[in-house]
Design goal:
There is one protein chain. By secondary structure, the protein is of the alpha+beta class. The chain contains eleven helices and ten strands. Strands 1-4-5-8 form a four-stranded mixed β-sheet, with helices on one face. The longest helix has 37 residues.
Length: 381
């Protein structure tokens, strides 16, 4: 079925994104994987094309598209090449930058956003902790008032862009007695004394995405580093999480759809017992099912994108899109590996990497179990 949410302007932007990725990025993916990180050149080149400033006002160097469909187009094109690209870009430009653009002071915006848009200042967001997982309200990193400063102590883990980030929007507990209502967001710079990083984490998939542990040992920052309102960090995160989860859904479907298309071509080209393996009834029926599942999921995600572009996406609908898209993605890719046979288990094949990369999508941005809990509560249970 034809997709109806994108205009000619969106498709022209898609061509720009695809051209950049084809010429400047795809040829270097193997090196990114070996380095377990995206090079700064990737960010600077993306910044030159305006791909990092879709959420940033023009006065601070961004393009301020004002239409989430442009974010979705770029997220799709990145994820077609590698889901790790979509993840790293998403954390920087689609998830973290909006906190500063929407909640930051004028001084913070002038200080950080121009370099965020250019790729000179790489962003990460510090939510997840070693003992916390999806339970953001239980975080233990603290900021204690000491005169005119705050002293931050604690750690974060599984932080995408964490090894390379220049600025980390970090959730810390400022009023322990208030529970979830005592969390504040701080902008902590990599040059701040007491900030350090652990090793690049050795992940099952998304190898080219640098993921790290972060440590805060008596990091001293002033009130000028508070992003948003004091003790309102949990609320701020809850308000921003729907966009993060929608971005995940967009990436999930785009990646699976691309690999499925490549698998269909493989099923046409690969011969066994005198015919293309796709001609065998089991494979033919299976591929018919997978194509239908992807298109149905894509239609729901497209509807969620359109709703978000109009400011109407609810947290519950974002949760539905996140969990369902990741379930479909993982199911489709598992079948794609099976159709490839032994080659599907070889790392040199994109299908193997995609299958491995996709497993985390049922865990991050709130596990699928948490998504179902949110949806269940909305049903009145």
């Amino acid at each position: 079925m034809d997709r109806t949410i994108y205009t000619d302007d969106h498709e022209a932007f898609r061509e720009t994104c695809a051209g950049f990725l084809s010429k400047k990025v795809a040829p270097h993916i193997e090196q990114y994987i070996e380095d377990k990180a995206l090079p700064r050149d990737f960010w600077l080149q993306a910044g030159e094309l305006g791909l990092l400033g879709l959420e940033i006002p023009e006065e601070f160097g961004g393009s301020e598209a004002g239409d989430y469909r442009f974010n979705a187009v770029l997220g799709e094109e990145l994820s077609k090449v590698s889901s790790a690209l979509g993840s790293c870009w998403g954390i920087h430009a689609d998830i973290t930058a909006p906190y500063i653009a929407a909640l930051g002071t004028q001084e913070q915006k002038e200080r950080w956003l121009p370099k965020v848009a250019s790729g000179e200042c790489l962003l990460a967001i510090g939510m997840t902790e070693p003992g916390g997982g999806s339970d953001l309200a239980a975080l233990k990193t603290t900021a204690v008032r000491d005169g005119d400063e705050w002293v931050v102590n604690g750690s974060k883990t599984f932080i995408t862009n964490g090894y390379s980030a220049d600025l980390v929007v970090t959730a810390v507990r400022t009023s322990p007695e208030k529970g979830a209502k005592g969390i504040t967001l701080f902008g902590i710079e990599a040059t701040d004394e007491g900030f350090s990083r652990g090793r690049k984490l050795d992940k099952v998939g998304q190898t080219e995405s640098d993921t790290a542990e972060l440590f805060f040992e008596n990091v001293r920052v002033g009130d000028d580093r508070i992003i948003g309102q004091l003790d309102m960090g949990f609320i701020h995160m809850m308000q921003k999480l729907p966009q993060e989860r929608l971005g995940c859904a967009v990436s999930n479907i785009a990646q699976a759809k691309q690999i499925l298309a490549e698998t269909i071509q493989y099923a046409k080209d690969r011969k066994a017992f005198g015919q293309s393996i796709g001609a065998f009834q089991w494979n033919k029926f299976l591929l018919a099912e997978l194509v239908t599942q992807i298109e149905v999921a894509e239609a729901y995600v497209d509807n969620a994108v359109a709703a978000h572009a109009e400011g109407k996406l609810t947290a519950i609908d974002a949760a539905k899109a996140k969990f369902y898209s990741s379930d479909v993605q993982n199911k489709v890719l598992d079948h794609c590996v099976q159709i490839h046979g032994g080659y599907g288990f070889m790392n040199e094949y994109r299908v193997a990497r995609a299958w491995r990369d996709a497993r985390v999508t049922r865990i991050w941005a709130g596990s699928n179990e948490i998504m179902k809990e949110l949806i269940g509560r909305d049903l009145g249970f």
